[in-house]
Amino acid sequence: MCGPGDDGFEAEAADLEAGIWVRGVDYLSGWRDAREAAAELGDALSLVGVEAAGLRLRAASGTDGSGVVRLELSAASAREVAMLARVTAARLGRAG
């Protein structure tokens, strides 16, 4: 499992056989960007108290080479993130 503070991501995130590769598309740059974004998200979730055991972050590249971050949460962590999002939206005046 990869969570905040981990310096790597699971091998399946970099599975070279997982999709169709197009010549000339820079998938590695997108994956690197996603890896950095996943680390930032993991750090932010850790700062607000979301348990690392309840989340999984994986970096990948989209078909166009753009970075993609896959977030998988336990049910408890999903509820915690939803509550944090609602509190933040209320503070920003975006509650609807």
Biggest β-sheet: strands ordered side by side in the sheet? 1-2
- The secondary structure category is alpha+beta
Q: What can be said about the biggest beta sheet?
A: 2 strands, antiparallel
Tell me, what's the shape?
A: elongated
Task: Catalogue the unreliable spans.
Answer: 1-5, 7-13
Query: What is the β-strand count?
Result: 2
Number of helices: 2
- Helix fraction bin: 25-40%
Spatial separation of the terminal alpha carbons: 35 Å
Specify Rg, calculated over alpha carbons: 15 Å
State mean pLDDT (0 to 100 scale).
Answer: 83
What does this structure look like?
This protein is of the alpha+beta class and 96 residues long. It has one domain (11-91). Helix content is 40%, strand content 15%. The protein has two helices and two strands. The protein has helices spanning 27-47, 75-91; strands spanning 55-61, 67-73. A two-stranded antiparallel ribbon has the order 1-2. It is elongated and about 45 Å long. The termini are far apart.
